Amino acid sequence: MDVVSDAISAVRIGRPSSNRVRASGSWCTRLAPYDGAGFHIVLEGSCWLLPDGGAPVALGVGDAVLLPHGAGHVLADSAVDAEAVARAVPFEDWPGEGHPSTAPADARAPLHVLCGKYRLDHSRVHPLMAELPQVVHLPHRVGRHPELRAAIDLLAGELDDRLPGACVAVSSLLDLLLVYMIRAWMSESTAGAWPAVLGDPVVAAALRALHTDPAAPWSNDRLASEAGVSRPTLARRFTALVGRPPMAYLTWWRLTRAATLLRDTTDPLAAVAAKVGYGTPYAFSHAFSREFGTTPGRYRESRQGDRAHGTA
Known about the structure:
5-stranded mixed sheet; alpha+beta; 5-stranded antiparallel sheet
């Protein structure tokens, strides 16, 4: 797979969930911090998002916002003050179809917003995911991010029509939405390191090779040949942008991939070792224990136990 796909797959667990909220009048609701990622898409009307410790964000029709680290936040009909934030109604206590207060409707346009969340395993996060800001705001602009706009339109249609197969379609579209939101952020970010990493043709080629076949017998010379540069050039550019030498990154990614396989599959240790490039279960177990501070078997037991209890 490619780097972005692998970065998402390494942390994604379970199925995403979503619900539509309709609100009118004067309202203010709080969403508690979440061990995953949350998102909102405004389908009608407008509102404000007030992240804990962050600046308020005005949201209009077609805007999408991703909270990749599950930050607590408030949604409100206006940029309310601290006193109103303190009185915000917990999201789970909204009555009926999402009307967050009993105040009479006023001149403000009704709000229709799609809210949702992804379960993420934060125990082993790829640096691309780690550097996402607390709030990724993707305002609707004509002609920008057509894939994201198309996914939003398709998702809104599935929610409205409840056609045969809608449950599968909605879940798949939510997964696609996450990819497109991260892709959109990368195309616009001027502060993150990883957009620059993947924008460098040499480093991107090397990463693509490593992620396509992490179990291959890679060496610095072979990887440099794959990237079309000399070994010193690859080492210099890769280390400067990624933050670690190519082979160190490969070791880290192999063990991160192994952790995902241990969490998500019942493959025997020998099979996991082979899939990530270790010749014997012993060599794999030694490397894994050095990196994680526990054996592969104990790691599997703890992570699958966490998943069963919904705490991962």
